[in-house]
Specification:
Blueprint lengths: L1 H27 L1 E6 L5 H17 L2 E6 L3 H13 L4 E4 L7 H10 L3 E6 L15 E4 L1 H19 L6 E7 L4 H16 L7 E5 L5 H14 L5 E5 L3 H13 L7 E6 L3 H7 L7 E7 L1 H18 L6 E4 L1 E5 L3 H7 L4
Parallel strand pairs: 1-2, 1-3, 3-4, 4-5, 5-11, 6-7, 6-8, 8-9, 9-10
Antiparallel strand pairs: 10-12
Helix pairs in contact: 2-10, 3-4, 5-6, 7-8
């Protein structure tokens, strides 16, 4: 009887464990979220929305900043040591793709990328790694169209306007964005000879200012300018450069990408500047949705789609609050 009693108790515990197993496992899920520039507002917002997903689902989120390849590889080992089962990453260098995949596999970690897609030794995307990114070409086209529309509203003729392509060609998405903008400009009368390259050393406002200043100083005969690049900072840098050489806001059209705090602050200034708009990309999907996708992959073995592309919405001085609200940012 004593043996039977012990067997029944053991059986009861086993049934309880099975019934409770799902929720207990959910509580044990750990997901990493690694970004290349943790100080940037975009990545801060991604983390904020990833935290929201973690709170809703009850998993642990481990956030790490990795500004270069060495730090990224160390971060992946760190995640493995902490018992993380999968991670989302925006890599500092897309060419690290094969190494990241191998390091993730060595630590038995599921891998998903966000924002920047990994490429192999041949430069082609690693299509087996699930990715959520921005349709860079379409975002660029939206920037180009915003510039064209503003030129029409001001009565500008493309023949009298110079275009500053603030470039960061090390990053494929940067190339796609500016080329998307250029395609629209050319379709609306811009000549290749009127589009000037301004390569920046980094992707911040200061680097863009320095790059754009060189172009403006080299072409003092051009009095009207438009500018675009990878992000808001690229366009803002060009606008600051135009101010430094005495070009009035009425003769400058800068359109950025991202909807960063720097762009919103520009819209809040008492007087309009040459920065007229930003194609806002919502970090909510990139932080919240990727984290949920990784959670489902870890907890339910539901692998995410291989490629998810998001788009953006143009925000200007008079409507940025509404656009931000519609994108879940207010």
């Amino acid at each position: 009887m004593r043996f039977l009693r012990k067997a029944l108790v053991a059986s009861a515990f086993a049934v309880t464990a099975i019934v409770m197993g799902t929720s207990a496992y959910a509580e044990d899920v750990k997901i990493g979220f690694v970004v290349k520039q943790p100080e940037e507002p975009w990545f801060q917002d991604e983390w904020k929305f990833a935290d929201q997903a973690a709170k809703e689902k009850g998993f642990t989120l481990v956030k790490i900043g990795a500004e270069d390849g060495e730090k990224l590889m160390s971060a992946i080992d760190n995640l493995g040591a902490q018992g993380v089962q999968g991670f989302v990453v925006c890599t500092p260098d897309v060419k690290l793709g094969p190494g990241i995949v191998a390091k993730a596999a060595a630590n038995n970690l599921k891998l998903m990328t966000v924002d920047d897609r990994l490429v192999g030794a041949d430069g082609k995307p690693l299509e087996d790694v699930p990715h959520m990114g921005i349709s860079a070409t379409k975002i660029g086209e939206a920037v180009g169209q915003a510039i064209v529309d503003e030129m029409k509203a001001r009565g500008w003729n493309a023949d009298e306007v110079g275009a500053i392509r603030v470039s960061y060609d090390q990053l494929p998405t940067a190339v796609d964005r500016v080329e998307g903008a250029i395609s629209v400009l050319k379709n609306n009368g811009f000549k290749t000879s009127s589009i000037f390259d301004a390569p920046q050393a980094k992707t911040d406002t200061e680097a863009a200012l320095n790059a754009a200043t060189v172009v403006l100083n080299a072409h003092p005969d051009i009095k009207k300018w438009v500018a675009f690049g990878l992000n808001d900072e690229a366009a803002l840098g060009a606008v600051r450069a135009s101010e430094s050489v005495g070009i009035p806001a009425a003769n400058m059209i800068g359109v950025g990408i991202g909807g960063a705090d720097s762009a919103i602050n520009e819209f809040k200034k008492p007087q309009p500047t040459g920065f007229v708009g930003s194609v806002i990309i919502s970090p909510k999907r990139h932080g919240y949705e990727t984290s949920l996708n990784m959670y489902s992959w870890v907890a339910d073995d539901k692998e995410p789609e291989k490629l998810i592309l998001t788009s953006g919405s143009l925000a200007k001085r008079d409507d940025y609050q509404k656009v931000r609200k519609d994108l879940g940012l207010e």
